[in-house]
Amino acid sequence: MAKKATKSKPKPTKKGSTFKLSKQNKIILGSLLMLFSIALFFSFISFYFNWQDDQSLLSEFKDRNELAKNLLNKFGASISHIFMYKGFGLASLILPFLICITGIYLFLGLPLKALFKKWIWGLLFIIWISIALGFFATSSPLLGGLIGFEMNDFLQDYAGKIGVLLLLVFGLIFILVRLFEITPEGISSFFNSRKEAISTEFKASKERKAAKDNDTLTTSFDDDVPIILDTYTHKTEIPHLEKEDDLKDFEINTPEPEETLAMEVEQVIEEPEEIDILANKLVDDFGEFDPTLELGNYKFPTIELLDQHGVTGGITINQEELEENKNKIVETLKNYKIGIAQIKATIGPTVTLYEIVPDAGVRISKIKNLEDDIALSLAALGIRIIAPIPGKGTIGIEVPNKNATIVSMRSVIASSKFQKAEMELPIAFGKTISNETFVVDLAKMPHLLMAGATGQGKSVGLNAVLTSLLYKKHPAEVKFILVDPKKVELTLYNKIERHFLAKLPDSAEAIITDNTKVIHTLNSLCIEMDDRYELLKLAMVRNLKEYNTKFKARKLNPNDGHKFLPYIVLVIDEFADLIMTAGKEVETPVARLAQLARAIGIHLIIATQRPSVNVITGIIKANFPARLAFRVTSKIDSRTILDTSGADQLIGRGDMLFTQGNDVTRIQCAFVDTPEVAKIVDYIGSQRAYPDAYELPEYSGEDSGTSIDYNVSDRDQKFREAAEVIVIAQQGSASLIQRKLKLGYNRAGRIIDQLEAAGIVGPFEGSKARQVYISDMVALQQLLDNE
Ligand SMILES: Nc1ncnc2c1ncn2[C@@H]1O[C@H](COP(=O)(O)OP(=O)(O)OP(=O)(O)O)[C@@H](O)[C@H]1O
Fold first, then answer.
1. Which residue's alpha carbon is nearest to atom 16 within ligand 1?
2. 3-state class (DSSP) for residue 272
3. Which protein residue's CA is at the shortest distance from atom 18 of ligand 1?
4. How would residue 218 be classed by pLDDT, with cut points 50, 70 and 90?
5. Does residue 740 sit in the same domain as residue 757?
6. Last residue of a domain, one of 253, 278, 311
7. pLDDT band at residue 206, thresholds of 50, 70 and 90?
8. How far does residue 676's CA lie from ligand 1's centre (Å)?
9. Considering only CA atoms, which of 660, 486, 514, 487 is closest in space to residue 586?
10. Is residue 674 part of a domain?
11. Which of 315, 437, 456, 651 has most ligand 1 atoms within 8 Å of its beta carbon, as the pocket-test mutant?
12. What is the structure's pLDDT at 221?
């Protein structure tokens, strides 16, 4: 069916071009019509003077010896006789004009649509004039022609003379109003414009005269102006209101230019502030502050540390596979009576995009509904239908390639797009479906949410993000906080602790693996955020970039607490696990950071296996416009992460969808293997480092007991009872207190905090119950009595 459609389509255009539409033919036909109209015009005119002499010759048309007096001889006499005598009389003179206009239209290749209207009006006009002349010029019936005479006769039999007269008046009004758009206002404005035109003309001629008297040289120039004005006003005589405005505008412009009073504007010279003078002097003496100076000899990792993964020549095109898939798509759609007008393929590293243009009249939803059928007939996983492709007007069918090409991290890092990227935190994710390197700025995102079922490429994705930053940023410019509950994925990065990692003071390991430490780190990061905002406020700047620029220009005094602030990237792997064990304690600081941290250079990357709504809560989602989905197991998961389906149809192994709020891009994630990461961190780790990791502010959390309600008199009335319950059960949990004492969640939570402050239970330990420090009731009694 599709073939039929494509074959049968070009035919009409071909035919049209030979007989109708070719430019040459139009010119020939146009000129013929114009010349014919001239001939017709002259024969009609000459008919009026010679018709009586020529009429007797009409029967002897074939006789070559007989000659007619008409300018176009017997041909002219005959055709005029038909149109003028037997036809419409004098009104037939309009006919050559209509033919001439048609000729001009064809000659110039103008659209013929407008011509139709002209012909209709022309013919109506001919009929009206013919009847009118037949009515008024009864003494010379030739003026109205036979048709005019007969029609008059016919109408008068039914409507009488007055009736015909009224009919003619109505016809005239109809023609004037519809054709010439004449209205009462139009008529009055016409007279006004005439009046103005005459006055302008008068004025102009007066000026001309004056100019002639003054200077003969300028006369020729001055003379021209009113002539143009003249034709202009004449042309606008059809009383259109807008045209009249034009005319007025024209007049307004004519007055002599007024002399303007020149004003001198004195230059504003800004007085340099004291601080600027000092800063300029410091910059002159020492140059701009260079944050990288402390590790001045730092060498960025080289490209050789990355593998090519066997890919050297880019994507290989399998012509057979392309043809086979194309045929299958066409066949499948044909089975559902959907014809295709056009099909185009774009080959990407893992999938090929077939863009189709369906025949006119096919509903898009029909194709969208066939997603499963097409997948079945192509016998392939991961078919995604994009109907329509935004901004293109085509329908996309993504079909996985039989042999996917690995996109090596090496190829994306080496790409000029990444190398030349003028971004604060450039990340090379991989390659798009059209094989372009996909680079985005984390600083602009400003946070990233990653989801994907296990084994679909999440850890590789995280490594790709970290590797990109390691290849582009100096240790002074960016610091990572890595949270890895799985304890194995990110441990490699321990080697660059003193270069690139940030940690809590007194903490042994920079990579955070246990939940309590996560909560502390998140809260400490909140303090860092507040501190940074304070510094920004002091420096009177709005964001980290402006702050650092000002600091580099030595306009901020380190003695006031100012320092160069590196970007901080917080990476949390397995966020679901954290939320399950720590709940609100994690969610609250994460939400706070997500909401506020963008301006002060703290960016979050959160990865999760389970993108369910209780993990990615509304508040988190709202603050993470950039989302990245690897393959997930269900449509619901896909919707949770991307707000649209599609991630459930990916093929895994780094096949992913990325959205930054608007359209979704399919990307093949760059592949970086663990040995490569190991080589990079070894390379960096072997270089001279800072004395310690970047220190985060100290967070005095719950375990110090100081921040909790410590005052004995402020204790809850049920404090003693709760303490007894806990000691008897030897289990420090708020839900136990809730159940036994029938209290609300918040009150039980407060009591457990007070018990912790009193030293009866230990600190919060995630999903586990708190430790109980008091072994029995006697010990509890003693403790409470001694307070
Ligand atoms: N971009 C990629 N290109 C090619 N293969 C990939 C890519 N990403 C992942 N893979 C393959 O998929 C495997 C699993 O990837 P990865 O370890 O990143 O999964 P994951 O989603 O982190 O799983 P989990 O959640 O269990 O840690 C890798 O060992 C690799 O073979």
1. 457
2. coil
3. 457
4. very low
5. yes
6. 253
7. low
8. 14
9. 514
10. yes
11. 456
12. 38
ipTM: 0.96
**CA-proximal residue: ligand 1, atom 12 (nearest):** 653
Is residue 502 marked as binding? Answer: no
Whether residue 668 is predicted with pLDDT greater than 90 in this model: the reply is yes
Q: Choose which residue among 403, 460, 608, 666 to substitute to test ligand 1 binding: the one with the highest number of ligand atoms within 8 A of its C-beta.
A: 460
Domain housing 740: 702-786
CATH number at residue 383: 3.30.980.40
Q: Are strands 448-451 and 437-441 parallel, antiparallel or unpaired?
A: unpaired
Tokens 């299958």 sit on residue: 328
Concatenating the DSSP letter of every residue in 327-351 gives HHHHHHHHHTT--EEEEEEEE-SSE
pTM across the whole model: 0.58
CA 316 to ligand 1 centroid distance, Å: 23
Q: Which of 206-210, 447-451, 740-744 has the lowest mean pLDDT?
A: 206-210
- pLDDT over 80 (residue 415): yes
Ligand 1 binding pocket includes 350 (Cβ within 6 Å): no
Is the CB–ligand 1 distance for residue 460 below 6 Å?
A: yes
Mean per-residue pLDDT, 595-599: 85
Answer yes or no: is pLDDT of 243 > 60.
no
Q: Are residues 564 and 585 in the same domain?
A: yes
129 and 199 in a single domain? The answer is no
- Where do we find the tokens 């296990």? 454
Residue that has been written with the tokens 């609250």 in this structure? 588
Helices 94-108 and 113-136 sit at what angle, rounded to 10 degrees?
A: 170
Residue 4 forms part of a structural domain: no
Query: Which contacts qualify for 166-174: CB closer than 8 Å, 24 or more apart?
Result: 168/128, 168/131, 168/132, 168/135, 171/128, 171/131, 172/128
236/354: higher pLDDT = 354
In the 3-class helix/strand/coil scheme, how is 50-72 assigned residue by residue?
HHHHHHCCHHHCCCCCCCCCCCC
Which of the listed residues 306, 450, 459, 571 should we mutate to test ligand 1's pocket, taking the one with most ligand atoms within 8 A of CB? 459
Where a domain ends, among 687, 720, 752? 687
Ligand 1 pocket member 456 (CB < 6 A):
yes
pLDDT, residue 449, reads: 92
Name the residue with higher pLDDT: 516 or 676. Answer: 676
Tell me the average pLDDT across 347-355: 87
Q: How far apart are CA 568 and CA 604, in angstroms?
A: 8
Q: Is the CB of 396 under 6 A from ligand 1?
A: no
In a domain, 741, yes or no: yes
Interval between CA 417 and ligand 1 midpoint (Å): 25
What per-residue confidence (pLDDT) applies to 244? 41
Number of domains comprising the chain? 5
DSSP state of 81: I
pLDDT at position 568 is 94
Q: Is residue 739 part of a domain?
A: yes
Q: Is 168 in the same domain as 195?
A: no
